[in-house]
Amino acid sequence: MKRIGILTSGGDAPGMNAAIRSVTRTAIYNGMEVIGFRRGYEGLLEGDVIPLSVSSVGGIVHRGGTILRTARCERFTKPEGVREGLQRLKEYDIDALVVIGGDGSFHGAYELHKLGFPVVGIPGTIDNDIAGTDCTIGFDTACNTALQCIEKLRDTASSHERLFLVEVMGRNAGFLALEAAVAAGAEYAMVPEVPFDLDLLCKKLRYAKERGKSHSLIIVAEGVMPASELQSLLKDTGGYDARITVLGHIQRGGSPSSFDAVLASRLGAGAIDALIRGEFGTMVGRINGEIVASPIQVSWEQKKKLDTGMMELVEILGI
Ligand code: ATP
Q: Which residues, at least 6 apart from 6, have a Cβ–Cβ distance to it below 8 Å?
């Protein structure tokens, strides 16, 4: 294994740069060369390459986003696109590819693996919706970013005695919404995994008002419904006048937390170790504190379960 390729794909996540740095330096430490492909599979198909050295990945460990940029590439989802990608990897004399991204990006890596090309995936997404790792790179930072914003909203909510609805990211997974709800002491969390009960929510809000609570915070994952829709529902059903805040892309940005920078550094090194051991077609994850390589299909074949105990905790603590 002499020459490694690396790309970031799908949505960006804080800590991706720390992972790029770790992959690059661990590979160089082990006598390999590293080539970066810019803009995910799009850059692979177009031959948009940049050689990575010890110094070119210096000073990025704390930077949000990804220096390799990222993209979603429709062409690569077709068999001809994958074959073209394989051709490109051969032209650049690449022996193995490290893919940093979510399960969509891992599907792409798996297609290359099925054609016999060595790949390893590193889970990077703020959604944390990937089995095979307790945490994905970027999740912790996104939770902290959401928490900081919600804390600020709580100040104004309590001063004006208002009901605030905060929409956080999470199309299919409620990990971020639930974590932020518990950390911020929200009264209610709405996640895609649990059916939403409007009556129960209205009952809770009535009860809170009766016992003199001055304000309430509801965290809603974008996949359940837009906060604006919930605002209308609450107005029509219980006459509630709620304010909404959509956190949006702010949750993806910023310097990685210490947790994410360490996770990314460990997974980056773990990816190179997996390649050296010949564990191709895998993803590296952190499970119970250990760095473990699992078959990459685990990321979509197994569904990571939301901790229902945490949902109960929001219920109990938000009375
Ligand atoms: P996030 O969780 O942040 O959305 P992701 O990696 O899941 O990240 P996707 O948009 O699902 O993001 O996938 C990123 C890219 O991976 C796609 O644009 C496409 O190029 C590639 N990809 C996705 N699915 C496949 C597939 N079945 N075959 C080949 N490539 C795929």
A: 20, 23, 24, 34, 35, 36, 37, 52, 68, 97, 98, 99, 100
Q: Which of 282, 274, 302 lies closest to 110 in space, CA to CA?
A: 282
H or E element: which one contains 242?
A: strand 242-246
Backbone angles phi, psi at 126, to 5 degrees: -75, -10
Catalytic residue check, 155: no
Residue whose CA lies nearest to ligand 1 atom number 10: 10
User: For domain 140-252, which CATH number applies: 3.40.50.2300, 3.40.190.10, 3.40.50.720, 3.40.50.460?
Assistant: 3.40.50.460
Q: Of 3.40.50.920, 3.40.50.450, 1.20.1740.10, 3.40.50.1820, which CATH number belongs to 3-138+256-301?
A: 3.40.50.450
100 exposure class (CB count in 10 Å sphere: 0-12, 13-18, 19+): buried
pTM listed for this prediction: 0.96
CA–centroid distance, residue 238 to ligand 1 (Å): 41
DSSP H/E element including 173? none
pLDDT tens per residue across span 254-282: 999 999 999 999 999 999 999 999 999 99
Q: Is 127's C-beta closer than 6 angstroms to any atom of ligand 1?
A: yes
- In the set 12, 103, 127, 129, the catalytic residue is 127
pLDDT of residue 212: 80
Q: Residue 119: what are its φ and ψ, rounded to 5°? A: -135, 155
Give Cα separations from 79 to 74, 82, 120 (angstroms).
Answer: 11, 5, 20
